[in-house]
Amino acid sequence: MTQRLVVIGNGMASGRALEHLIEAAPGRYQVTVFSAEPRVNYNRIMLSPVLSGEKTFEEIVTHPEEWYETHGVTLIRGKTVTSIDRERKTVETADGIVAPYDKLLIATGSSPFIIPVPGKDLPGVVAYRDLDDVDAVLAAAEKGGRAVVIGGGLLGLEAAAGLKMRGMEVTVIHLAPTLMERQLDPAAGWLLEQEMVQRGIEVVTKANTKAVLGDTRVEGLELEDGRVIPCSLVVMAVGIRPNATLAKSADLNVNRGLVVDDAMLTSDPNILGVGECVEHRGQCYGLVAPLYEMAKVVAATLTDTEAAYTGSVTSTKLKVTGVDLFSAGDFAEGRDREEIVFRDAARGVYKRIVLKDNRILGAVLYGETADGGYFFDLLRQEADITPERDTLIFGRSFAGGAPLDPTAAVAALPDSAEICGCNGVCKGAIVEAIGAKGITDLDGVRAHTKASASCGSCTGLVEQLLAATLGDAFEAKRVTPMCACTDLSHADVRRLIVAKELKSIPAVMQELEWKTSCGCAKCRPALNYYMIATWPDEAVDDYRSRFINERVHANIQKDGTYSVVPRMWGGVTTAAELRAIADVADKFAIPLVKVTGGQRIDLLGIRKDDLPAVWADLNAAGMVSGHAYAKGVRTVKTCVGSDWCRFGTQDSTGLGVKLEKAMWGSWTPAKVKLAVSGCPRNCAEATCKDFGVICTDAGYELHFAGAAGLDIKGTEVLCRVATEQEAIDHGLALIQLYREQGFYLERIYKWANRVGMDEVRRRIAGDHEGRAALVGRFLHSQTLFQTDPWAERVAGHDAHEFSPLATIQPMEAAE
Amino acid sequence: MNAHAPIRIAIGHVDDIPREGSRVVRAGIMEIAVFRTTTDEFYAIDNRCPHRGGPLSEGIVHGGFVTCPLHNWVISLKTGKAQGADEGCVRTIAVTVDAEGRVSLDLPANLAAAVAA
Ligand code: SRM
Ligand SMILES: Cc1cc2nc3c(=O)[nH]c(=O)nc-3n(C[C@H](O)[C@H](O)[C@H](O)COP(=O)(O)OP(=O)(O)OC[C@H]3O[C@@H](n4cnc5c(N)ncnc54)[C@H](O)[C@@H]3O)c2cc1C
Ligand code: SF4
Ligand code: FES
After folding, report:
1. What pTM was computed for the model?
2. ipTM of the modeled complex
3. Which has fewest Cβ within 10 Å: A450, A464, A528, B13?
């Protein structure tokens, strides 16, 4: 007979336990899950990206509606179990639902700790544990102002970074002298604090909260030393307590948490516990990796299989876009301990390994965390590191001699090496799945092993592992040659141009062993772009490698005539400009004058010979080329904004004009279109552009990677900034990063998809110095390329393009 | 005069035509595209793509070929034939360059006649 399994708590631990159980013994139990939260199960550790706007709730759901249906699991949502009757073997909810069980699994997680100060119950004081908390925080963030986050640990900092990205002013209050003091040593904690401060987050350490101030809702926070910080939101992220009150009231053995043995059984043999609510061998955990280990054992015990959980060593990564931080084990100083430290101030890198008897006890990595897994592995194996001690701090790539490339480094890892920390998947399991299931890509690995399916920070490793395991089969899938003239991909070519300092098209073709003497119409324009984008000062723009439109600065039409589109900055024009356009249309008998989809005017059907004269007249009225033909910056659409519109929050028209004036004339891998809307009504359609800005009361919400041509795709939020100058700088930096990384003809949305949205955010929004450097490189290139090509041609440049070599008179020919 | 003998007409100097480039010669209702390759070979073909009449003079020149600017057909300058899967052919016209670098076209008599018409 099927037995009844009741589960209390629908969280990460119980979700995973049920998956293992269903896999091992489908149908063995009739499962009922009570969930205090009114929703399906989701990946709690990804709440921070939801808070920051980098992900939506739908994207972090782990067990959708259909999962419960498919596996016959009854989910009772929004119901809190309030009592357990161990004699009658039933549980009961607050509103009187009673469910009998044969086996009971308690997975109630933990509760956020609320510090008992006056004002803690005021509206505007929130915890950070579930989606409802995130919603409450976002509702408050909408109104702007300052948020105070109490607690500078993992959760607090993720919350602070998210709130900052949502446009709030943020202060972090922390009791200890340095941030994340339980995971980081003071040096790394200090670097982290610098990073937070750079992001505009205020950090107050050694600060104790005295009271939350306010009459009907939060108005400020008072510290012990008397300081008052005005704020409209207080997020308490000071710690968690195992949620074991229900178990305790059922007279189960409860210490700090619900006590379980190695089989995950509580003091009642029909009741198991799993997750953050339990205490195992005196230890309570607050990270998912140990819970997933426990979940396997729960499934085993429920199916009468012998298994034992023996405890976990944990490692931590902070999921704040742009901050690389890793810590594992114990790194307190001690008489019998030694340490190896590496610092690179310029790059903000700090690494420290704590040793005892030549075995790793703990590791802290900041700024460069690629070797985290390697150290963690040595730590867990308690390996003797004497042989590689001298170079240990340089990590895997150095260990045992010659540096390895990343793929070789992964190949060299032992099978027991953990690749995915969240899901505890080791290398051996992935390699085995690749072979057994015929997996050929990342999605396959995610589906079959769960590696890289949670926080995603091991994605690179998994890809390298795929490459190492499948060898050429994996490579071959990924490398599409640029064209028939070479076997190299765009990525290889761009990389080699930089690495080998190739500064002309012939140099590229020679060094990279082009198979044709002069390339073709596919590779030549691409190489020309790579030249001028990579070496703006040195490379010569080879106009013979440009498509006709970019060679004559007009758009060729199907009958061989051309169209001409002058710039109208931000879509703004004047009577004088319109008059000049009308005069040109009359003078050259231009057949069609049309308003384009890009807020400007197109003159179509112009004979090639007439182009310079048309441009001369347009130039005389102050108009320059609109680059409507260019793989370059095209249009910046704007709406009327705060100068006119009753809803306008900022001067969207002005910002659009400034952006266009800063960017025009630059060459890019593919065309770039922008828009600026004055409020979220978004009349300029900024959310389908390559770069878009939505003005808000609090400032500017920056968007990127939209598409509305061959593909339709809404933009991603890049970040939120307060000032117009920041908005412009972020835009310029984005374009420059794209110019440096994009493949020819690859629009921004495709490029960003390829390199990763988070990587783009990290480089643009997260890395202040990096952003400034990108802006610098862009502006430098503009000093060389921002010229009106029309004026140049009016002045006689490339004159041969616009007149025939000879006109043979009929008379002459007939002679 | 032999009705089939081509007529040689001077059109300009080698320096007037850029390497990997092309210039147009207008002859009445006709247009002829004159090309110069990287290796200083000269070719002339009708300036009308066999596909849909695109102006071949505006294409990118690579080796002995030009890619049409409208839909990327690749045409051999030597034979006038479309390459690859595409089928079609344009007329080729002989080019001569003398010792002083003067470029002339040998217009077939029938073309010369068309020009005259
Ligand atoms: C003139 C204009 C249509 C109009 O009359 O409104 C136009 C005309 C052309 N578009 Fe466009 N597009 C025009 C706005 C758009 C828009 C709307 C917008 O910009 O707000 C889009 C969708 C947004 C986008 O960029 O994706 C658009 C998406 C495309 C695409 C698809 C691009 C893609 O990556 O998905 C192409 C094809 C391509 O570029 O390969 C294209 C290509 C073209 C070309 C260049 C086709 C060609 O190669 O000859 C057309 C040139 C006509 C000419 O000679 O002027 N046009 N085109 C618009 C000029 C805007 C301007 O002021 O510069
Ligand atoms: C913002 C955030 C970021 C995090 N980041 C990381 C990270 O990067 N790495 C990492 O390893 N860990 C991270 N964690 C911790 C991780 O999420 C937890 O370790 C994990 O979710 C614990 O799983 P659990 O199943 O024990 O508890 P939970 O996931 O909390 O699930 C418990 C569920 O039980 C419900 N419940 C409680 N009592 C009852 C009752 N009486 N009746 C019915 N339902 C009840 C609760 O409402 C809850 O839904 C993060 C946590 C948060 C909040
Ligand atoms: S987006 Fe807003 S400001 Fe702009 S026109 Fe529309 S309503 Fe007005
Ligand atoms: S007209 Fe030349 S390819 Fe179509």
Report:
1. 0.53
2. 0.69
3. B13
